[in-house]
Structure formats: C-alpha cells, structure tokens
Amino acid sequence: MIRIALDVMGGDFAPHEILKGAQETLKKVPDLSLVLVGPEEVLRSFPASSRAERVPAPEWVSMEESPSEALRKKPRASIRKALELLKAGEVQAVVSAGNSGATYAGALFVLGRLPGVRRPAIATVLPTLKRPAVLIDAGANVDCKPIHLLQFGYMGALFAEKILGIPYPRVGILSIGEEGGKGNFLVKRAHTLLSQSDLNFVGNLEGRQIYLGEAEVIVCDGFVGNICLKVSEGVAEAVTEMLKMEVKKDPLALLGFSLARKALRRFKKRTDWREYGGAPLLGVNGVVIIGHGRSDALAIKNALLVAKKFIETQLVERLSEALKQEKAQKNQALQ
Amino acid sequence: MIRIALDVMGGDFAPHEILKGAQETLKKVPDLSLVLVGPEEVLRSFPASSRAERVPAPEWVSMEESPSEALRKKPRASIRKALELLKAGEVQAVVSAGNSGATYAGALFVLGRLPGVRRPAIATVLPTLKRPAVLIDAGANVDCKPIHLLQFGYMGALFAEKILGIPYPRVGILSIGEEGGKGNFLVKRAHTLLSQSDLNFVGNLEGRQIYLGEAEVIVCDGFVGNICLKVSEGVAEAVTEMLKMEVKKDPLALLGFSLARKALRRFKKRTDWREYGGAPLLGVNGVVIIGHGRSDALAIKNALLVAKKFIETQLVERLSEALKQEKAQKNQALQ
C-alpha cells in the first residue's frame, strides 16, 4: 500500500478543497493511503479510516510568507512535519499545494539534495500539439547560473526518458530568437554549456515552439519558467472566455455550441491545468510534489495520482542512479 | 498627406507579403503615401504611383544577422536607409517587420534617443478581458537594470494615457507571486524604485493577471517580455488547434460549429495578433514601428495604420514633452 503525506494547509483553498480532494481520492483509488498533516481542529472533521491517518501539526505557512523565515520560525508547520514523515520513511511522498518556496526550502533542509545536484528544480509537464513536454525549472530558482541550467537539462531529460518514456528527448533552452547568439547573458552562456554536453540539445526555443511540441525538455530559470506557466494559464482562460463572449452574442452560435457540447467538454479537459496534477521537485532526496496554488479538489486528486505514479516508477531512485552514471561518465558537468 | 517609409526587405515573408500589404493599404487608405525602401529589382515589380515612391537600397539585414554587425557592415541596408529618410524629415515614420535588433540599433544610431531616456523600449498593446494593456519592454533590451524598468514604467504610462486615452493608468511589474518580496534580483529592486515613484504603481503582477486586465501598463525586461508575447501566441494557437481537433472528431460538433461560424470569425479576429499591428519603439527620436517577424499583408497593413495613428496623435512630441516635464519635476528618476 502506497502512503502519501498531504499538507492540508497548503493552497489558496486550504483546508476545505484539500480535504475534499483527499476524500475523493480515497474513494476512487483503493491501493493508496493518506497521512493528513495539519492542525487537530481541522483534521477532526475528516472521517477517520484505516486508509486515512491524521498527524497533527499546529502551525502552517501561508502563501505570502517568506520561505526562509517561515522555515526558521515555524518548526511545527504542516509542510515541515510532512517532509519529516518522508525523511523517516513513514510515507513515500509528500504533496503540498502551499507556498512552493517553503516546500522547496523545507525539502532542501529536511531531505537534502541527491548527490551531484546543485539546485533542485520544479519539473512541470505541459500539453503540446504533439507529445507532452517537461518545463524545468517552473519556479524553484529565480536567479540561476549557466551550470544550473545545464543540470536542469540533465534532470529534465532523465525525467522525460524514464518517466514519460521518451527515448533521447530533445532538449531546448527557452529564449528569444532561434539562433544561438540570441538571448540574455544567462541563456547565451547556458547555450554554450548545453551545446558541449551529450544531451540531444536542439538549441534555442521560442515561446511559440513549446506548444508546437518542438522539444520534449524546455530549460529555463525558475523566474522565466514560472511566468511562462502563468501566462499560458492566463491566455488559455482569456481565449476561452473571449470565445464564450462571442458565442453568447449570437443565438445561432449558442445553438451550435450546444450541439458541440461533448467536443467542448473534451477540449476543456485537455486545456485545464487541473488535469495535469502536480509537479515534482527534482533533485531532492524524496518524492515531493508541488501542487498548483489555486488547487481545488480535482487538482489535489490529480497531484496525489502523480505522486503515486512517481513512487511506482521509482522516480527518485532512477534519477539518483542516472546522476551517478552521469557523474562517472563526465566528472565535469554535474559537479 | 502622411508619408511612411516601409522596409520591404523586413520579415520572414519579405518582400512578397510586405509589398502586398503596401498595395492593399494604398487601396484602402486614401490619405497616406508610402516610400518603399529595398533593392531596385524588388521595387521594380511594384506599380508606381503618386502615392508610392520607390527608394533603392541595395543591401538588407536578414532575420538571423547580428544587429551590431549588420549595422556596421551594411551601411546601405534598407532599414538604415528608411531611418535616414525619417531623420531627414522626408517621411514621418518607419515601419519594418525585419530583424528587430537591427531596427533598434539603427534607430539608436540614426535617430538617437529622446532627452532623458536611457533605453528605448518596444511597447506592445495586448488584448485583455477588460481594457487593452501596454507591455513594455517587448524585446529591445534583454539585460536590464532596475532604473531601466522604472523608465519603461514612465514611458508605458505616458503611452497608455496619451495614446490609449487611459487616465492615471495602473502600472504593474511582471513577476512571480503578487507580493513585493517575490521575484528575481532585478524585479525586487525595480519594485522598490517603482513604489517610490509617483506612478499609479500596483505592485507585482502574475502572468495570469495580464489577461484579466488588472493593470494597463506591464513592465518587464525585454527578454521576459518577448517570451511572454511568444508564449501567448503559442498558447492561443495551440488552444484553437486543440478545439478544432476535438470538433473534427464529432459530426454533431462540426454541424454546431458551422452554425456558430460568425461568432467564430469574430473570435478569431479578436485573438489574432495580426489585427493588433506593430509595436512602437518608444524613446527614440521618431516614430518607428516594429512589425511582427511573421507579418503577412494583413499585419503590414495594420502596422502601417498604427504608424499613421502615432503620427496623427503626435506620439513622439507628446512623449518628449512629457519626459521634459517629468525631468523638471524630479531630476532623479529619468536621469
């Protein structure tokens, strides 16, 4: 039985939507048990069962708090407690939709990094017109050095290969203009390092090419990566909203859309970020899944399923093994 | 009669689509004359008229060339010649869909900056669910200092106020997380400067908030701004494509969509970047409009219309005047 710790105080809609998501997951996924971590008075409302353990943590980190300060001042915060359960081997993964900076800082502090990794990073799977692609880093490291981007390339490629099952994935770097000479200081220098690596490096990618599916791994710093994700969500929402507005003006179009109901539902599912679950924090010593801050019950269920998949596919062990091999092969790149 | 110089060699689809766009514009807009700049053999195909002058330039800058090198090695390039016509007062604006780095470098060299401006920047108008918003810088300056971002805020606000007619526009800085403490080094320091300014500064904006219309001016460095634009285009295209794919699977949905034809056409127009024309390079001493690299005839026509509007509304004079006032009021911020 797989056991996952869930931070019930993480996210804009915590604890209500988190608990609801937990309940729905337990109902639908039989071979999974949850350890709910949060204040006693919150947990009390959750029906106890053999598959739902409740571990009290009297404090929690809000979305606005400074991660390093929260880590120092709140040793009994729910996310910290959840990570400690993982460290102690009592659970196999942690899921939190809370303050991602605090989850990152806590994971570094409690679990530590895999050998050879300088900066763990958030890897998000994006839908494209072809295969799904991995964007790394999606927000853990806002200021990066070229060597960090090289490592993100290695971790992202391993993830795409071992978890998504894409052999020899194409790795690109998010930039402006396709030519290698284009980009900011960081990207130009990272481009040189990536070109010299043995990755299947395809050079600069423009924002447009991500969604055309022109690479399976997209490397960027966490500032650019997070903006890229949030802009994507915003555009998808705005485009859908504009479509609705135009259709509402016109009775014939309204009728037409009611005929297309099923196709529209499939479309909505395909463009809804909640369907893609959480994003793993790659490079720490354990399965840590970062959920979207605006997670509702559906998003939490999908984040838990992602965690389950990563446990089953032995993500961390494989990554650790692959990093060791990389290290043996070239003592330069990952040191 | 307004006279605009058009670089016929600029853009992925030059010269064919550029010439086609010129021809369509002349047909539809009577109070406009064009000066077409490009190699003689290309211009020869264009029907001469009292409203279409042809100025030969034997060289041109390709999309891949290094801007500074092109500027040095090709003194007779079409974009350079067009800018010289503007400098000499023979035209009132320049439009080019070519290598935007070369247009930027050429404009700096030939026209110079308005007094007080450190870095001219590209201001792009974005559609949002509320009013249009100005994103500045959309790609001219890939590596910026905090003071540059402050100036972009001033130029963007003047543009929103004087050209878009939005009094006291809200200015936000593109970042990750809404709180002031979040962002990379550059954004955190620019946030401090913007907070101390007399702009209507609303703090950090997440990518999602751009399209919700939560500010009228969005400040960012040109690297992030350009990625933001290209990602937006990519998502809008991908979402539309996914919708088509789902509808095609289902005959009933196909029928429904044929009923909604008109609404879909309005929607397409609203989300099509080509409808929004070109983006002005703010802060140089003249009206320079940068068209999208993938411009077709329609996009060129709209870029020419944008140039015309900027001439009519005396964009550069107003900006220059406003900058002088700003400078008089606070000798700090714009120096």
Polypeptide structure, described:
The structure is a homodimer of 335-residue chains. Chain A has 335 residues and is α/β, with parallel strands linked by helices. The first copy, chain A, contains 13 helices and eleven strands. Chain A folds into two domains: 1-117 and 283-335, Isopropylmalate Dehydrogenase, CATH 3.40.718; 121-274, Isopropylmalate Dehydrogenase, CATH 3.40.718.10. In chain A, 47% of the residues lie in helices and 16% in strands. In chain A, helix 3 (67-73) packs across helix 5 (100-110), helix 4 packs parallel to helix 5 (100-110) and helix 6 crosses helix 7. The radius of gyration of chain A is 20 Å and the shape is globular. The two termini of chain A are 37 Å apart. At the A-B interface, helix 8, helix 9, helix 10 and helix 11 of A face helix 8, helix 9, helix 10 and helix 11 of B.
Quick overview of this protein structure:
2 copies of one chain form a homodimer. The first copy, chain A, has 13 helices and 11 strands. The first copy, chain A, is an alpha/beta fold and 335 residues long.
List the SSEs and their pairings.
2 copies of one chain form a homodimer.
Chain A lengths: L1 E6 L8 H13 L3 E7 L1 H4 L8 E5 L10 H7 L4 H10 L5 E4 L3 H11 L10 E6 L6 E4 L9 H17 L7 E5 L10 H12 L3 E6 L1 H6 L4 E3 L2 H27 L2 H9 L1 H11 L7 E4 L4 E4 L6 H16 L2 H15 L6
Helix pairs in contact in A: 1-12, 3-5, 4-5, 6-7, 6-13
In what range is the share of β-strand residues of chain A?
A: 15-25%
Name the CATH superfamily classification of the largest domain in chain A: Isopropylmalate Dehydrogenase
Number of domains of chain A: 2
Helix content of chain A: 40-55%
Q: Architecture of the largest domain in chain A in CATH?
A: 3-Layer(aba) Sandwich
Count up the helices of chain A: 13
**What is the makeup of the main sheet of chain A?**
11 strands, mixed
Order of helices and strands of chain A: EHEHEHHEHEEHEHEHEHHHEEHH
Rg of chain A is: 20 Å
Distance separating the two termini of chain A: 37 Å
Largest interface: A-B, 66 and 66 residues
- The count of β-strands of chain A is 11
What fold name stands as the CATH topology of the largest domain in chain A?
Isopropylmalate Dehydrogenase
State the assembly state of the protein chains. Answer: homodimer
Structural class of chain A: alpha/beta
Query: What shape does the CA trace of chain A take?
Result: globular
